[in-house]
Amino acid sequence: MQLSREALLRAYRQMKVIREFEERLHVDIQTGEIAGFTHLYCGQEAVAVGVCEHLDADDKIVSTHRGHGHCLAKGCDVTGMMKEIWGSREGLCKGKGGSMHIADVDQGMLGANGIVGAGAPIAVGAGISAKIDGKGKVAITFSGDGACNQGTTFEAMNMAVVTKAACIFVFENNHYSEHTGFEYAVGTNGDIASRAEAFGMKVWRGDGTDFFSVYETMREVLEYVRVPGNGPAAVEFDTERFFGHFEGDPQRYRGPGELDRIRETRDCLKKFRESVTSAKLLSGEDLDAVDAEVLAQIEDAVQQAKAAPRPTADDVLTDVYISY
Amino acid sequence: MARMMYREAVVSTIAEEMARDPNVVVLGEDVVGGMGTAGGPEAIGGIWSTSTGLFGQFGADRVIDTPISESAIVGAAAGLALSGKRPIAELMFADFIGVSLDQIWNQIGKFRYMFGGKTKCPAVIRMAYGAGYNAAAQHSQAVHQILTGMPGLKVVMPTTPADVKGLLRTAIRDDDPVIFLEHKALYGMKGEVPDDPDFMIPFGHARLARAGQDVTIVSTGLLLGFCEKVADTLAEQGIGCDVIDLRTTSPIDEEAILDSVEVTGRLVVVDEAPPRCSLGSDICAMVAEKAFASLKAPPLSVNPPHTPVPFARELETAYLPSIDKIEAAVRKVLSYR
User: Fold this and answer.
1) Residue A312 placed within a domain
2) Where does the Transketolase-like pyrimidine-binding domain start and stop, copy by copy (chain B) (predicted)?
């Protein structure tokens, strides 16, 4: 399926926003001004965007501790997110959540999640809700090659099949669960999709470093799951994580030259640029213009986040309950 | 008023609320019972008979029989709640919070706060708790002390069928996550229940089960009945007990306890969970902090010992606070100085 010029530009912009948002965080975190733990998604942008470009606000996603990309791709406000990560009371979660707990339910973004494997059961519930409503909406859970080893993910896959939830398990294999290789930790010879298949789901596989592979694969997956009664499906994307598990991770587990190699050969933004310019769908100038706009947008978001009001001690006590 | 059992109050309230609000759904293990068997759906209807008839009335979309997957049950309730539904999830035994605690504690209890107050999570997690069936260490526990300590959750512990009716309706209509603890030894208890289809009991409002001037006894659940018996015995001897049924442990009706202790000056808390970091120690500490000047005796908490729940009849009987133990504690507090 041929994407329109507008759709291509939009997809590129979405990926570029995630990339620059995080490249900037990587720099700013080193100044010590940003508190807490941050897990960067950089390198995996094609997955978040290739999935979420198919969705609207009534489709739900549940994300992970490495959630910035999913949040941005699903429509969370860039400045609101930057303010949140900087801990402002004007942040998307009023400075209560931080990097690992960004959510925007109005956008169908049911939360990043600090607990590895916790998202899949939540997506099953959202998928049951979508099934009950019968409007062809879906719920998607993103899980890494780490989360795929959690029992909660197994329970969720089985329950999704049993309840015929309109749920999609998107597995992003970035080759490392924290600091451990997937070939060691994923007992099925590193094959995640086969597990989902064993639970009774139809499965797909795609190249998570290629936007077009992700986008086309997801078109098929969504076509299937949006049919009432078909139940869940799963898809595994092979992808790359450009930074460590967390910011500050010395990454001694990487092979010699590995980071340079994956940045050179497995960069979804580079691949996108090469693909659309060689096919003459977009020009280099088109993309350069997006790059410049995005950099300016991120700079503006950072400046706003730095200047935004800080929370006060009184804010600790709000929003625990609606009424108590 | 209608006379019904505690378990009937559970299922009738759920049915009434499901009829009233199409967003209310039920999920859990064997809430239908018999799925995939020769006996067919509703061959069982829930082991506690707290979901009997719901499947027939509301269908498979809204009465969701799940595999034995407690994490996924509570997690699915979380996802349903975030998607506009009002799930009522059942954990067959409260002891099974162990395998679903992340979803209870880190997920539903924290969404609203972590997400900056922009979302609600109207999930009810029902579970049967408590000793009395010789079900031993993994099927007999009172777990309220664990859950009451978790910010973001409300914790309800009804004692009577009327309280089940009024508190469960409040729980289902509440926009915050609610843990609803049903004492399994009370399921057969009968009582008068108001007919009003909107009968609700607000959380954080204790019930005065007996009124007296000499000592305050605070409890809830199965042991509340033991406390009432002790109060009745002592009343015959001219000793008046305020017996306060907490109904909810989060929020807790501090005012009712403090008002009573200001009159009686003496406090006994009767708690089915073990003593360390317990509801009993919590209330005794609260009273010591806030009503110290009113106290005529040290507050006392009656709990089981710091052991797992034992199996054999003699052992379980020895484990649980009994009428005799409660009476002895009350007399000890009364005879201080």
Assistant:
1) no
2) 4-189
